[in-house]
Write a structure and sequence with these properties.
There is one protein chain. The chain is α/β, with parallel strands linked by helices. The protein is built from ten helices and eight strands. It has an eight-stranded parallel barrel with strand order 1-2-3-4-5-6-7-8, surrounded by five helices. Helix 1 (about 15-25) links the parallel strand 1 and strand 2. The protein is globular and about 45 Å long.
């Protein structure tokens, strides 16, 4: 099984959503691929009503608190009213533009677990950290701090998204992706005592490069940005992986 999850970010209007749903339903989905879409909160209910049988529907962020004086925030408990399957947590854009810390991300993951929402923890290094040879150090720090003191008996995923590859058209080599995801799984098993976690790769994935980038034996799928905004392109990524055998 491969997992292809999309992140719409701050894109689409309701008209776009309705067109997307129509196009998605027209496509024949491969049997050995699980799809998921992280959509803006406003479209969670509509997407669930129309696509929940074909695709997991989730959100791009969640509050670190259960309730309170946090204007503009959406809690995990609120999301349960709309059958939210998962939430991205710790995306690099949240870390950089909204100054989220590993400690806040840790609380968000716990909120997800407490409310039956699967978190997808995003980790990855910046260009400067890569050039300084700090990639593995950064990954280990993010993983251990974000998952510290949490009961990990429930399902979660990790997305390896090198910051320098998100939305830039730049990508690591397939070997770099495989090596870094294998390292993530090693840290999860040895330092966090958690085995069998699915780890996705994210960063400028599209239908043309998906088969090459995601063919590593440790790579369980992709977290897709721009290409997920088009239903056919998004589904084609999974189709192009359907015949990949490890």
């Amino acid at each position: 099984m491969k997992y292809i999850f999309g992140n719409w970010k701050e894109n689409h209007t309701m008209n776009d959503v309705l067109s997307y749903i129509k196009e998605f339903k027209k496509q024949k989905l491969p049997l050995d691929v699980c799809y998921g879409l992280a959509v803006p909160y406003l479209y969670l209910q509509k997407m669930n009503q129309k696509l929940s049988k074909k695709c997991k529907i989730g959100v791009q962020n969640v509050s670190f608190s259960e309730k309170g004086e946090f204007t503009g925030e959406i809690s995990a408990k609120m999301l349960t009213d709309f059958s939210c399957d998962f939430s991205l947590v710790g995306h690099s854009e949240r870390r950089q533009k909204f100054k989220e810390t590993n400690e806040e991300i840790n609380k968000k993951i716990e909120m997800c677990f407490n409310n039956g929402i699967m978190p997808i923890l995003c980790v990855g290094e910046t260009k400067e950290e890569k050039e300084e040879g700090k990639t593995k150090k950064v990954l280990k720090t993010q993983l251990t701090k974000c998952l510290k003191d949490i009961n990990l008996s429930k399902q979660f995923m990790v997305a390896y998204e090198p910051v320098w590859a998100i939305g830039t058209g730049l990508t690591p080599t397939p070997k770099e992706i495989e090596d870094n995801i294998a390292y993530i799984k090693k840290v999860l098993e040895e330092n966090i005592k958690k085995v069998g976690v699915c780890v996705l790769y994210g960063g400028s994935v599209n239908p043309q490069n998906a088969k090459e980038l995601l063919n590593g034996k440790s790579v369980d799928g992709a977290l897709v940005g721009g290409a997920s905004l088009n239903a056919k392109k998004f589904i084609d990524i999974g189709k192009n992986l359907a015949n990949v055998r490890r």
